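Notebook entry, structure prediction.
Reason for the run: the old model in the group folder had no record of what sequence produced it. Starting over properly, with the input documented here first.
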Amino acid sequence: MRKAPNSIDADVLLDWYAETARDLPWRRAEVTAWQILMSEIMLQQTPVVRVEPIWREWVARWPVPSAMAASSQAEVLRAWGKLGYPRRALRLHECARVLAAEHGDEVPADVEVLLSLPGIGAYTARAVACFAYGQRVPVVDTNVRRVVARAVHGRAEAGNPSSRDLPETEALLPQQIDRAAVFSAALMELGATVCTARTPDCTRCPLPTCAWVTAGRPVSEIVRRTQKYEGTDRQARGRLLDVLRGATGPVERVRLDLAWPRDSGQRARALDSLLVDGLIEQTVDGLFALAGEGGNAS
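New structure, fully documented this time:
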């Protein structure tokens, strides 16, 4: 059967994925929905190479939600290490408590139920339904959006997220449910390893047709802004958190001052944001500690 002009050849993509897919541990058959959920939370804006060792530690330490729920917030934050965006760890801990208390220590399969859980957004809910339960639901991340933009629409970049992303991607899925779930993984893999943002390797692309290549690979009109880390509030927050992760209890303010001496205003701003986010606590004595370790926090 000939493919419509604006489609992706599922047979070709699935064959390519079967032959070349990375052997990522959360893709293996024995992995549970909870463990897939942990991987999806960790992988948000974080490279696979940084996630894999931490994920393995978490699977061994917290194989089911109730195991994590029995741990403190501070234990989870310490185990999160330097993955970045540590609020994700707190939200996952909160999610584990709900799963243990209200869902029989299991991750639900229904997208709408998943969306009702703490810290679970539209992408994560569909990723769990698809990758853990094999459902035919569109899973759209930046990699998928880029592949669809290029192969289907002939654009170099996908642009800003749109309400069209889910229905457009769902229309590309094979009708057969088990093939659709693998197709979603394959589409994501193609964007992550071949059809990359900065250096797409079209010579390795398995797709027989690509609207972007056909159009002469037009240059993107989107101007990317490089996100620096050095000297940012994010770095300041990380330094302050490092102090508290390494402490055995609440610490004095001077310990935090020494961790970021370059800009007192920025340090104060970072400290305040950590308190607002619930990542740290201030005790009635004016000391600072990780969430859950402040005793009688103020």
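Summary: The first strand starts at residue 280 and ends at 282.
The old model has been moved to the deprecated folder.
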